[in-house]
Write the structure tokens for this entry.
Amino acid sequence: MRKILIVAAIATAVALGCLNTEVVSAQNKNAAKAAKMAKPKSLFSRLGGKKAITAVVDEFVNNCATDTRINKFFMDTAKDKKRLGKFKNNLVNQICQASGGPCKYTGKDMKTAHKGMGISGADFDALVEDLVKALDKFNVGATEKGELLGALGPMKSDIVEK
Ligand code: HEM
């Protein structure tokens, strides 16, 4: 009888141990899920990653090149395929990096890049409009649009010269 009781006690302890392991494992799974849910997605991933950013930049540069308010600035760039490709690539990497993506912008700083171009506040606003048009074409949400424009806005004082 004593032997039976000891065996039963051991069996119960083992069963409870297993049960406890399962509970802990379920708790860990839930904690991981909660952590994942709580972690906000980067603007980069909400924009749709590098592919989506590239599509927006293509459209944006196209808008600038056909916008009679500012296309004089982009005449030489648009005529030279290699230069145009490099310009677009710089823009993609700049937006990718600024939105928390895994890219590295290796172009000039904004002051150096636009030095001597004589860009006005109205030119800057026209370009922002062309960017918004491109973002709208790809149905980028209002939050993401606001965040991206918020990241680019502070560059205005380095770009505008008059
Ligand atoms: C937030 C606004 C702007 C951003 C983020 C921006 C970004 C850039 C970048 C990344 C470059 C390339 C720099 C390099 O070559 O290393 C560039 C060049 C240039 N930007 Fe801007 N820019 C802005 C506003 C403007 C405006 C308002 C204009 C004119 C209306 C303009 C005209 C140009 C031109 C003509 C170039 C030279 C393109 C070439 O390499 O041929 N940009 N910009």
The two ends are 99 Å apart (CA to CA). Residues 2-38 form the longest helix (37 residues).
